[in-house]
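R.M. (postdoc): so does anyone remember the format we settled on? I'll just put the structure tokens first.
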């Protein structure tokens, strides 16, 4: 609920203000986490409610949950294109995105959207969405490996906690 209250304020600020510095690039990408986790939550809640309520609701609730999760996924997909464009622009202007521990803010949102994409591909029996989920899985692994490598390198150099 707090996210729903703060989301319009933060979105307005991100959209209308100058692009944050490269060190804050993950603030654009982190919005995928509520979309991915929220969509999975809607699916799980609708399935759980259908199983516990029974009757006609057991047929309707999963379908409503699937439609709701798909709408949330659509927002996440739109935002990933929007944020991706901002991140590419930011990285080109500042000579790349610098690594710091906040860079791990790219890992969970990517994983959350990937998990929702995989589940929607399975639930809709949609091969195209399933392929997107597989691509997202590879992207999640790549993000994790790059961040882990950068973390190890920064730790060895003694600058992992540098400001």
């Amino acid at each position: 609920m707090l996210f729903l209250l703060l989301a319009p304020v933060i979105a307005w600020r991100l959209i209308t203000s100058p692009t944050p510095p490269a060190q804050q690039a993950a603030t654009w990408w982190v919005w995928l986490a509520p979309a991915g986790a929220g969509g999975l939550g809607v699916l799980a809640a609708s399935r759980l409610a259908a199983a516990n309520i029974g009757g006609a609701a057991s047929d309707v609730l999963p379908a409503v949950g699937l439609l709701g999760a798909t709408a949330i996924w659509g927002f996440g997909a739109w935002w990933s294109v929007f944020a991706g464009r901002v991140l590419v622009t930011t990285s080109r202007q500042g000579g790349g995105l610098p690594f710091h521990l906040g860079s791990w803010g790219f890992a969970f949102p990517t994983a959350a959207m990937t998990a929702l994409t995989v589940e929607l591909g399975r639930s809709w029996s949609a091969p195209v969405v399933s392929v997107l989920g597989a691509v997202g899985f590879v992207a999640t692994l790549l993000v994790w490996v790059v961040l882990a490598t950068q973390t190890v390198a920064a730790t060895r150099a003694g600058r992992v906690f540098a400001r």
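R.M.: ...and that's the designed sequence above, right after the tokens. Also worth knowing: Helices lie at 2-16, 26-29, 32-53, 57-93, 107-124, 127-157. The chain has a mean pLDDT of 90.
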